Every structure is written in C-alpha cells, then in structure tokens.
Amino acid sequence: MLRSASRIACEDTRVTAKLLGHHGIKARLTAYHDHNAAAVRPGLIAEALAAPVALVSDAGTPLISDPGYKLVADARAAGVNVVAVPGPSAVIAALSIAGLPTDRFLFAGFLPAKAGARRSAIAELAGVPATLAFYESGPRLAACLADLLAGLGNRPAAVGRELTKRYEEMVTGSLAELAARWAEAPPKGELVVLVGPPLPAEAPAADTLDAALTAALARLSVKDAARQVAEALGVPRSEAYARALALKHG
C-alpha cells in the first residue's frame, strides 16, 4: 500500500525514511504532527481526493496515542475512503501477556504529567469495572505507580517495556511491588502500565454479621433486618436472611 501512495504523512520524516529505505520504497514525505496538523491537514485531504495518501506513525498502529484522528474525521467528511493497515500495538500486546482480565479494558492513554492532575484523573477511573491501561515514560513511572497505588489500592498490575521490540520485558505483581521495584531506578524505553479491575469487597467477619443482625432484629422483622444488614455490609440477602433466622430461633 505504501508503494502506491502519492504522499506519505508521518510523525517524523527521518524515522519513516529509514523504514521506506529498508523496503526500497520511494515516496514524497510530509511531516504531520500536533504542531503543524491544522496547517497541513487541508492539503493532505485535497490530495487524497485525487490520489492515495498514507498516514504512518513512528511505531505501532497509527492514531493510538498518535496524531491523526482529526485527519481521518475530516477526510471521511470530505468523501475520502479511509482504510486501515494495523501495525503492532503495545497496549494490545501487553493485555495479551499480562495475565489480567481482558474481557473489559479501558485504554486511558497517557496520564497527566503534573501530580495534581494525574491524581484527579486516577480518582475518576477508580470505579471503572475493567482493567486499566496507560502509556507512560520511564522518568515518570515511579510517580505514576505511587499515585495509582494511593488512588486505586493495591491491585494486581503489570508493566510492559519495549513491547514488540528487541528488548521486550513484562513484569507483573501488585501495585505496591511494582512501585517499590522502580522507586529509585527508572526503566528505559516505552512503557505500558496495566492495572486490574477493582478488587471485590471482603466478606464481613461472622461476628460482625451476627452483631449487626442482632441489633437489627431487636427492632425489625427477620425479613427487614436481613435486607437492611445485607445492604449495609454488602453480603447476599439470602445469606443474611438464613443467619437472621438462626439467630432469631436459636
């Protein structure tokens, strides 16, 4: 597909030129990134209406935390047929080998660099019932893991480094373990941080359940006492009802 493109838009023309050189592809290159996108986009769309134009990223699948979604949206609005040729995706690779639930996951891109904004973003994600996925840099990893631990609790987690590349590494453990591992020596390379979904609440101790039911039974029927205590302690209503009956008639 790149051989047939009249122009290739890319993040860094030097990086893409090396890729094309390996495959003997000669094409006109145009830099397309966050700083020039608004100015370059109209020309790319106009050309794409007449001839094939390609968009590539420096690494991985285009548009996954890379510039380009506005180009795709505007190209579609102009009537350009847009097709995908996916490349390696670090976040999907990480999910496939981390051993965390993958039936639901939320990719949240990069967390904010500033501590306050980062903690606020983490707080917004605390209740999401899914594995959370982030991109991160080595120098910020320790602060990121510490804030994830403080904001989400000590959940199972994983850190993938340089995934789909030569020095690929995946480290798993609890958030506390991972935060301690990189507290002093940040890793090099591009990172994916995965955090498991919220942990299920621990069942209350038997004496706690009995004490709550005894107090409720002093003023309520068995049915109402069981319902109230089940809601307060987060236990199944059937379990609370069976125990309330035993206490009432025991």
The low-confidence runs, each spanning 5 or more residues with pLDDT under 50, are none
The Cα radius of gyration reads 26 Å
Span of the ends, CA to CA: 78 Å
Shape: elongated
Number of domains: 3
Question: H/E order of the elements?
Answer: EHEHEHHEHEHEEHEHHH
Structure description:
This protein is α/β, with parallel strands linked by helices and 250 residues long. It folds into three domains: 2-77, Cobalt-precorrin-4 Transmethylase, domain 1, CATH 3.40.1010; 90-195, Tetrapyrrole methylase, C-terminal domain (Methyltransferase, Cobalt-precorrin-4 Transmethylase, Domain 2, 2-Layer Sandwich), CATH 3.30.950.10; 206-249. It has helices at residues 13-22, 37-48, 69-77, 90-97, 115-125, 138-152, 175-181, 206-217, 222-233, 237-249; strands at 7-10, 28-31, 53-56, 105-110, 131-137, 156-161, 169-174, 190-195. The strands form two sheets. It has a five-stranded mixed beta sheet, with helices on both faces. A three-stranded parallel beta sheet has the order 2-1-3, sandwiched between helices. Strand 1, helix 1 and strand 2 form a beta-alpha-beta unit.
